[in-house]
């Protein structure tokens, strides 16, 4: 499959990731040519503003403002689709595949939303899609799941897939910051967008986990299938109490086979401090895979960022140049034909839970609450009510009550939530988090 | 490259790993056939004793006692070479390749000692060798280095590659055991061989690191190129003092580009407790890769064991069945043609050091020792001499002195060692370990 003729590629988008790809292809040109078996040449770049100065853009590259120039260029075999969002990226990918070009992309939202249609179109056109960069750029997890672990029935994936949330949770605890302050810091440092909703509400992590779930369990899932909860309700107090009890709170994305059903959730979760996954701080990501043969195998690294993401795109480009992508993509297409697992209804998820309630600081409150839990068959493991919560800024006659339950179901907790919300003693925001020991 | 005809393979050896491979191929047969694009069939097994009962051996498999039966069987395309040691494994692999058969193997010692010759023979016969299982079975590190990270100049590998040593060091600290007791426990639990020399003296880890160094830095290295030190001189006291200072001691295998030279060492090393690599306990392995684009990316999992190793062998078998190995192996062969890096002479390695000296408990000893260090331009960062060392069983008028140095060279330390050994106040065993902050 090797060739002495160069591989001509087009970059759609020359922003953070696109310029990172150009930078790597330029600085590592010699090594990459050896590993790929041929020279890799950026022959065209599509951008919105052709007059902007662009670092790392090789001399002689055609700069276009229209995808048509790529579609119509018969020299271009591979299109690196490096713009975000669905529109116009979806259209560009469909047109590239229809024009007989293979595609690599870092666009997670697009692969999540339209991956199966794009894969079908690629198959129909005998083309391929490489998408290692779409999930956890600095961690080669798609390759691990689709190649290295293919002898395994994967039993679970547990992952931190959103660097923004992990950064915010880390800073809150380390710096004793409130959520809002840590978010502002993340925005100032470029870890969070001006509109951080998709990161902090769990959407981004759920989209990534959905992509991995398709590959690891041959099961297509959508956001509605998830028990999904963001980090925006977490208070510093929760992180502190959890730490006292030996836990870190992480936005944990989990897909797990349990009794022949697939449990999937993205929730802030208490994780024992001694587990590796609890020790991943800042903007880093981690994916812990449990396979029936390999046991636990764990991958961690940068979740995003220019060069880590570009590193994954370049690996896909090299894989394409060698001919390896053609093989891998066929294998992915075949696996997607396998019988999917049924998704466990949310109500049947079984975990221990952490509850933090803001309650009136008066007699009989604890009795009222534990009565609700008891009637819902939720057994209590521990209760903690500090006289003066460290972060009680209000001084409004309320107290913070933390209850840890024994193993129970999401359904029972939801029923209890409804009853608790009707109690007169419950004031302000409460939070409920699962515990992963 | 896919085909509807089954792939016929032979297993050479049906011990721990061989029966694990048969077990996975049997229990995951359906999934594996989908991923591989064809059925994978064990058509022949070569063993020493054909009458031994063998679990997981599929019905109808031919059991031979001679490799000739495999060599002469034109139906067999792929030979899984799953016996350890050099002889007769080397001969079997050469004959398999000469007979036009491809090979996968878990034999680390063989790939270390004769990999380049075997690779050349494979190339000459247009055959391939898969060897993911040869290094850290439960961690797909060979795939990561040769495929996922090919856009990077790898700058360093830091790894725990010997599960036996890691288990012993973990148990010593956790259970307050002496080295000899922890070794006995490792042997009782099957983590260490009756003759543990290759594990505890660093040979095993160095062989594995040499294989990774070839792949990551295109530089062939042999055991003599390493600064190599085993764990057998480590006392419980060292682990305890290190812990007090915020370090774990791990048998760390390091290959690092520094000033365009390759530093390679396998030594018990003090590692800051907050680093992920320090938190890998028991028989697990870890490989932390630093690449110029990807940054830090870390892989951890089981280092050995029946099913983790077999998982890697099966992944190689599936890669072969799909045609991916042919591509990857060509890429590995091309990379091996690249210019090697010069190896840094041991004397020029620059690190901080931990020194533990057993000295006479009398005046002027510290002055004598610090005078030697000072004259060798070794600057001291901290000194610790406890009145009653926790593990001083001897009560023989000696004291344990722990000195932490600032950054200096291995050469200066070696010169100081020579002088220190001549001092009358030095008694019994001393130890010197590098520090990796």
From TrEMBL, chains A, B:
The keyword Oxidoreductase applies. Keywords: Amino-acid biosynthesis, Methionine biosynthesis, NADP, Oxidoreductase, Threonine biosynthesis. NADP(+) binds at residues 12-19. Belongs to the homoserine dehydrogenase family. The keyword Cell division does not apply. This is Homoserine dehydrogenase. It is an enzyme of class 1 (oxidoreductase). PANTHER family: HOMOSERINE DEHYDROGENASE (PTHR43331:SF1). It catalyses: L-homoserine + NADP(+) = L-aspartate 4-semialdehyde + NADPH + H(+). The active site is at 208 (proton donor). Gene3D superfamilies: 3.30.70.260, Dihydrodipicolinate Reductase, domain 2, NAD(P)-binding Rossmann-like Domain. GO terms for biological process: methionine biosynthetic process; threonine biosynthetic process. Its EC number is 1.1.1.3. Residues 354-434 form the ACT domain.
């Amino acid at each position: 499959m090797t060739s002495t003729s160069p591989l001509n590629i087009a970059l759609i988008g020359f922003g953070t990731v696109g310029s990172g790809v150009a930078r790597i292809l330029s600085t590592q040109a010699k090594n990459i040519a050896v590993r790929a078996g041929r020279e890799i040449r950026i022959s065209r770049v599509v951008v919105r503003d052709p007059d902007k100065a662009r670092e790392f853009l090789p001399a002689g590259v055609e700069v276009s403002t229209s995808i048509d120039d790529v579609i119509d260029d018969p020299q271009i075999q591979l299109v690196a689709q490096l713009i975000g969002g669905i529109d116009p990226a979806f259209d560009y990918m469909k047109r590239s595949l229809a024009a007989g070009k293979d595609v690599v992309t870092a666009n997670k939202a697009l692969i999540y939303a339209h991956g199966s249609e794009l894969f079908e179109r690629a198959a129909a056109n005998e083309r391929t899609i490489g998408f290692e960069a779409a999930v956890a750029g600095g961690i080669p997890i798609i390759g691990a799941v689709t190649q290295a672990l293919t002898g395994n029935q994967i039993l679970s994936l547990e992952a931190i897939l959103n660097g923004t949330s992990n950064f915010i949770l880390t800073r809150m605890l380390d710096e004793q910051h409130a959520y809002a302050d840590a978010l502002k810091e993340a925005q100032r440092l470029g870890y969070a967008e001006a509109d951080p909703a998709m990161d902090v509400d769990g959407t981004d992590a759920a989209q990534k986990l959905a992509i991995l779930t398709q590959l690891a369990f041959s099961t297509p899932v959508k956001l509605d299938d998830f028990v999904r909860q963001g980090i925006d309700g977490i208070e510093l107090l929760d992180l502190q109490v959890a730490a006292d009890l030996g836990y870190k709170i992480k936005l944990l994305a989990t897909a797990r086979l349990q009794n022949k059903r697939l449990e999937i959730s993205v929730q802030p979760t208490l994780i024992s401090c001694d587990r590796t996954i609890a020790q991943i701080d800042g903007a880093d990501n981690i994916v812990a895979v449990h396979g029936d043969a390999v046991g636990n195998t764990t991958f961690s690294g940068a979740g995003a960022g220019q060069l880590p993401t570009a590193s994954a795109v370049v690996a896909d480009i090299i894989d394409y140049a060698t001919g390896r992508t053609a093989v891998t993509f066929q294998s992915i297409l075949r696996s997607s034909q396998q019988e999917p697992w049924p998704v466990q209804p949310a109500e049947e998820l079984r975990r221990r839970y952490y509850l933090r309630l803001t309650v009136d600081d008066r007699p009989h409150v604890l009795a009222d609450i534990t009565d609700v839990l008891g009637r819902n068959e939720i057994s209590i493991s521990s209760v903690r009510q500090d006289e003066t919560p460290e972060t009680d800024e209000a001084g409004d006659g309320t107290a913070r009550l933390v209850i840890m339950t024994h193993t129970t179901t999401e359904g029972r907790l939801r029923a209890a939530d409804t009853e608790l919300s009707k109690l007169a003693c419950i004031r302000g925001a409460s939070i409920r988090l699962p515990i992963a020991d």
